[in-house]
């Protein structure tokens, strides 16, 4: 009898532990972290060029870090970090977006919340100052996941986002880059060495931007924003606004943002591939990013990936043809760190 009561008690204890962990009452302490990228590159930067870009990336990390420090959500941290880079002409997102073959700037962006698995994205937008904010509106206020073209511009306007005209996105260096691309009859990644093989452009370019974060509640989020590729066909949509291709977050595994040959990242379902390799093949987040990059390279693609797993471990990978990926990381109470493809001279 005594033995029966004892085993009943053990069973009850086991059942309550199972219930507690399934409802996440056994709260774990997560160390918040935000990671960003500013594209991959085949170009070396001078000291001066380096400092200019590093400053914006640090500001971006600090914007995300501030939110995480105050206990804010990973979704809000990702948006804040991306907005800083979208407002800078140094990156291929928002203000510094590249040109289509017809001379337009068409913006793509996406956002995913790893807790709810809700996501929102916009593509081919021409008037939205901060595309990442429009992705949030698609996620929160519509029954859809991806809205393209005029519909995205209208949605942003109707929801009070800042609207600009195409002139806002004009920068000399991007326009020159379009001329280079037209001369070489190529669709160029911003990391392509236009200046080396054409001898025309003098400025090195930074690329697509992405941010991923883990907040104190263990929630992951991912965001990506881009102008796409220089000389792309008008109406072309890359991987950045495609959930599972250029962007993905799931609390059960990882948050991922990609940069590179979008037309190939889509075919690899790259961001989701990192999650799958982590979840099913039990690879570390670093290995999962590396394996996915190999798959991208095998199909002729080039670029990079940033990822964070549900425990706050980070993974960075890029294809070998590039000098590397401009990226940075910030943890609570620590100075944000920026990593550059080439050593500071
Ligand atoms: N992935 C982007 C696209 O293909 C470009 C980039 O990341 O540089 O649109």
TrEMBL record:
Protein name per the record: Isoaspartyl peptidase
CDD domains registered for this protein in UniProt: Asparaginase_2 (cd04701)
Residues where substrate binds: 236-239, 259-262
Domain of life according to the entry: Bacteria
Active-site annotation: 208
A Pfam family annotated for this UniProt entry: Asparaginase_2
GO biological process, one term: proteolysis
Keyword line: Autocatalytic cleavage, Hydrolase, Protease, Signal
Gene3D superfamilies: (Glycosyl)asparaginase (3.60.20.30)
Keyword Ribosomal protein: no
Example of a GO MF term: peptidase activity
Site (Cleavage): 207-208
Source organism per UniProt: Campylobacter insulaenigrae NCTC 12927
Signal sequence region: 1-27
